[in-house]
Structures are given as structure tokens and as C-alpha cells.
Amino acid sequence: MPRSAVRAGTLGLLAFAVLSLGLALRAPLTTTAVALMVFGVLHNVLELRYIGGRFSALLGRPLLQLLVALITGIVLVRLVGAAFGLAWTVRAEIVLTYGILGTATWWGLRRYRWAALAGAVVLSGALAASLTWPSYHVVVITHLHNLVPLAFLWEFSRAFTRRARTLFLAVQLSWVVLVPAVMLSGLLDRWMAGTAGTVRTFAAIPQVVAAGTTLPGTWGTTVGIRFLTVFAFLQLMHFVVWVFFLPRYAPATTAAFERRVPWLRGWRTWALGLGAGAALLLLFVVDYGQGRTVYSALASYHAYLELPVLVVMLLSFGVVRVAGTPR
User: Fold this and answer.
1) CA–CA distance from 322 to each of 47, 53, 246, 257, 319 (Å)?
2) Residue 30: is its pLDDT beyond 90?
3) By the 8 A CB rule, do 101 and 307 touch?
4) Which of 201, 217, 246, 179 is nearest to 42 (CA)?
5) At how many degrees (to 10) do helices 113-132 and 134-156 cross?
6) Neighbours of 198 (CB within 10 A)
7) Integer Cα distance of 119 and 102 in angstroms
8) Could you give the C-alpha distances from 5 to 9, 150, 164, in angstroms and in order?
9) Of 198, 199, 285, 326, which sits with the fewest C-beta atoms within 10 Å of its C-beta?
């Protein structure tokens, strides 16, 4: 990847971070809702294209089929839970989530039995905690999903020069870690649009807009506003990475995906994302709650397929076989 492109991409992400922070501080609920409606489906499609192209070596047919089966179970559980208001479906989703994590851990450590056993013990403890406090599990998963781009950007930047990579990663760590920490500390409360008034009216706003973004018991409080603002900011940056940055600066990965799935070459991927997004946008406008339910279910495929890739990356210290390595 040419130095000029690395510099342009780094400065572009920095500019988007500043803009996203301003929007999140001034209008967190609107930013959360509108960004999801406009970019949600498209970023799903483009992220699946990136993962399918760059990490195809990790996603062999047997593993991919098992993961798709588990994720489809999550989709069905979410739809059934939303349709009938069944509380047990949340715990069922948690069990399936740890099934995905367990599969990825076994796959990454299958040659090291003792390490795989240790991983199973850790996951068992985490599963018990998640089942004990499912509401906290949902909030943690919701926010962690927005942090995922950091891992992929970290891996993507491996081929940069040392100086360019240092600057690039400094920018990423700033918006992923530093800015949210500052917002949660309360140092930016004075710049939040009508914080006091928002707190008084927060509880009256349909909670479906910000479902899973605030800790239990903080809805309608200043702390709740901070968590919602952090989510609005990170979600918007999450979309920026998948919709603008990686499609522009990772053409080799796109080419790798198109060789594997030739019927989605070129404009067809964008047409699929924009077309499906437009259809769901109509449902959002008519009934935001129903639109959010359908989106949440379908988005499970991209959200949970990235988990095993991340686990394998971590277990191999970020050194994985990828396609489309940047030049």
C-alpha cells in the first residue's frame, strides 16, 4: 500500500472520528438510529465480503458450515424471542454464542490439548457469569461489537512501514479507547446537548432505539446518557471502517473474495447491500421497532462470524494466513 494512501487513510479516519464525536455528543439517539437505518445493512454485506476474502483460509467448509448452523440458531432464537416475548431466548442465544466461541477456541488450539482444555475452563466460567447476569452480557456484547474494527485494522496495517503503522495505530487507539474513556469519565458532559434536560426526558424515549447500550439500572440517568453517547460514536466509526475505509484501501481483499464468489463481483455487492438496506429502511420508517428486530436477527451472521476469526487471530498472536495482504 503506497505511503500516500496510508497517510490519506489515516487522516481520513481521524477526520471522521472528529465528525462522529460531534454528532454523538450533540444528538446521540438520532445518530444511533439514523446511522443504523442508513448504513446498517450495507456494512453487514461489506464486512462479510472482507472477512470472506481476507480470511478464507481460516473458514474451510466444515468449520464454516458448523458456524453458520450455530449462527442460524441465534437468528431463529432472536426472532422467536421478539415475536413471543420469551425471556429464555436471551439465555439460549448466550449458550449458542459460547458454542461459537468454543468452536473457534478448539479450532485455534486443536494442536495444543492442554491449552484447549484451559480455554474450555475459561469459557465455562464466562458462560456461567453470562447466564447469571444476561442483561450485562447483552450490554458487553453490544459495545464490544463496535470495537471489532480495531483488531481488523491492526492486522491490516501489518504491511505498513514502521513509522506509518505507528501513526495509524495511534489514531485507531485514540478513537477506540481514549475518546470513549474520556466520555465515560464525564469530562465531556458539558458538551452533550442539553444533558440535564435529556436525562429528564430520556426515560420517555422508546428504549428500542438504544436497546442494549446502557447498563441495567442506568436508563434515564447521566451515566446512561454517557453510555449511549459512547455507543453512538463507536457505532458510527464502526460503519466508517467497513463502508468507507476498507473497501477503499483493501482492493486486494475484495479481489480475493470475488475469486471465491464470482457472482458477487464489482457493483453487485454494493447493489445487494444498498437494495436490501433500502427495503429494510422502509420497515424502519413504518415501524422502527420491527425494523430493529429484523435487522438484529439478520445482522447476527456478520456479528457472530467475526468472532471465530478474532479468536483465532488472538490465539495466533495476530499472525494468521490471509488473502489480499496489503502491499
Assistant:
1) 15, 8, 15, 11, 9
2) no
3) yes
4) 246
5) 140
6) 19
7) 8
8) 6, 19, 10
9) 285
* Cβ atoms 260, 52 nearer than 8 A: yes
CB 268 within 8 Å of CB 184 = no
> What does the CA dihedral 3, 321, 149, 307 come to, rounded to 10 degrees?
180
Pick the more confident residue, 60 or 276. Answer: 276
Indicate if the pLDDT at residue 264 is higher than 90.
Answer: yes
CB neighbours of residue 48 within 10 Å? 20
Give the chain's mean pLDDT.
89
Residues near 239 by Cβ (< 8 Å), separated by ≥ 6? 35, 39, 40, 43
Confidence band of 128 (pLDDT split at 50, 70, 90): very high
